[in-house]
């Protein structure tokens, strides 16, 4: 289970703003959305994707179990004056029966191998399930990458077993991390890559920037599969 902390939210927000990752993601998701339909970003985390989509004119409900994440989105909505976004602190286990959206987006959350029916029952038109693809250049080692590759296969198998009609689209977007100092970079690595030789990886990969606030940058190409599962 993923838990947000103050630091994780701060780093994620900084990486999102630096790389504009969610703008790129929204570019690829938008063709599957219809303006005016009911859309839910389920397990929305810090809400960066939901805010971009709402700013592009898609009314959206953003739901997450984490109080810290939802508090963060609410503060961001205030700053951006995003009007089309409703937020709810809620577990997907507690969504009342019968509640449905046309499209449910789940981005790096949930476990479709175990809970496919639960998520699928929440949408009437499609589930857009975005997942990580294995990545040898990510923070970690080969064993770690192999694990993600296997999880990927299991997820696709889970969809096929249900006989659902789906299409997959693969992308790679930069989602690296800017840092104010090497000390901060080490804190980041300790928070995210405890078991995976992260400090060695950091020392090898970290780059200098010309930015006075964030003089260090850890590049990262995030490789994703967008899986559109139709009703
Ligand atoms: C890895 S984060 C991804 C967040 C966001 N979708 C993104 O891509 O940045 C997983 C998110 O799922 C949320 N989550 C986990 N279990 C949940 C549940 N039962 N109901 C709602 N949200 C949940 C977590 O709080 C967390 O924000």
What would your notes on this structure say?
By secondary structure, this protein is α/β, with parallel strands linked by helices. It has one domain: 3-Layer(aba) Sandwich (Rossmann fold). It has 8 helices and 10 strands. It is globular and about 50 Å long. Residues 136-140 have low confidence and may be disordered. S-adenosylmethionine (SAM) is lined by residues 2, 43-46, 63-66, 69, 91-93, 107-109. S-adenosylmethionine is lined by residues 2, 43-46, 63-66, 69, 91-93, 107-109.
- Overall number of domains: 1
What's the gyration radius in Å?
18 Å
Q: How many DSSP H or I helices?
A: 8
User: Which strand order do you get reading across the main beta sheet?
Assistant: 3-2-1-4-5-10-6
Question: Could you provide a short overview of the structure?
Answer:
The chain has 231 residues and is of the alpha/beta class. The chain has helices at 6-19, 21-29, 48-55, 67-80, 112-120, 142-161, 182-192, 198-205, and strands spanning 39-42, 60-64, 85-89, 101-107, 123-132, 165-174, 177-179, 207-208, 216-218, 221-230. It has a single domain, classed as 3-Layer(aba) Sandwich (Rossmann fold), CATH 3.40.50.150.
